[in-house]
Amino acid sequence: MMKSLRWSVLLGMAALAVAGPRPAQADGAYAGISLFYGEEYAAVWRLPTETHGFQAYEIIPAKNPRQTLALLFVIDQAKIRAQFVDLPLAGTGKKVSPKLERHRLKRTGQTEDALLAINGGYFTQDFQPDGLFRTGGREIAPLTSKAVHSGAVVVEQGRIELIARAEIAQQREIMQSGPFLIDPGGELGIQRDGPKTERTVLALTGPGPGGGPPLLLVAVFKRPLSLVQAATLLHQLPVEEDGRPGLPSSIERALNLDGGPSTGFWCSALPDRSFEPGTPVRNLIVWTRR
Questions:
Q1: In whole angstroms, what is the distance from residue 202 CA to residue 24 CA?
Q2: What distance in Å separates the CA atoms of residue 270 and residue 223, rounded to the nearest whole number?
């Protein structure tokens, strides 16, 4: 595990006393981070992944430690590379049955020898990407001006960048999505609360360890949260200062991907915690060792 990511106990937080026993797969001391996301406190456990540059955490509600609020993956992009995977369905008509092609995420992750695979962007009822999607030298769907599609995920030399819609140009590997939960610059991007649902979010810190590329955070929220709650939780992740362990720099931006029944992930180190989306999804983001 990267030294800069060794989060230790933060003393004096009453919520930790009610967090209960650690998850069975947690591999060490309680990480000790207490986060408040508008309704209650949550706490963070480190999970075993045994891959340099890739670390998993489980976020659990302090009042109900047997539940999982979210899985958080912290990725050193100098060691782990990303790619898009397009998963079109042929001959399915106008609507896609939830029973079609189950376990596509797990199968794709295993085929690609992936450390992690997650659901990607929005798609329409006829299973076309909803918003700009370019990959493999092809533009599969055009740019949209819908308000929710305020940003995009770019993969450049295996590294994820999160850009605003105004920055979209001729990037070869790009997937439009949104909204921004944390706006570029580090400010909360969501001010009004809305419906609660499962969510998948990508976030980038400032410069990584030793001034290297930004660390990437992948957050998969299993328990329904509003956009404000998800943004608030991510915004509270601590930064190293005055000897306190944490991220090397604060989250600089965070972008929402498709969620609800589309939410899912496959992690090779945590197969028992992985779960498929409730419906087939059009595209994935996959991470492998460089």
A1: 26
A2: 18
Residues 137-163, mean pLDDT to the nearest whole number: 96
pLDDT, averaged across the chain: 83
In the 3-class helix/strand/coil scheme, how is 124-164 assigned residue by residue?
Answer: CCCCCECCCEEECCEEEECCCCCCCCCEEEEEECCEEEEEE
Both structure tokens of 148 = 């929710």
pLDDT at 247: 77
User: Residue 32's pLDDT is what?
Assistant: 53
Q: 189: helix, coil or strand?
A: coil
Burial class (CB in 10 A: 0-12, 13-18, 19+), 108: middle
Q: What are the C-alpha distances in Å from 270 to residues 85, 99, 174?
A: 21, 24, 28
pLDDT > 70 fraction of the chain, expressed in percent and rounded? 80
């189950």: which residue's tokens? 102
> Contact 144/152 with Cβ under 8 angstroms?
no
Please name the amino acid found at residue 153: V
**Coil, strand or helix at 104:** helix
Model pLDDT, residue 47: 85
- CB atoms under 10 Å from CB of 37, counted, come to 22
Token digits for 255?
Answer: 């972008």
With contact defined as beta carbons under 8 Å apart, do 150 and 165 qualify?
Answer: yes
Pair 176, 135: CB distance under 8 Å: no
In tens, the pLDDT along 37-77 reads 766 777 778 888 778 889 998 888 878 878 899 999 999 99
Yes or no: say if 196 and 226 are a contact pair by the CB < 8 Å rule. yes
Structure tokens at 258: 């498709």
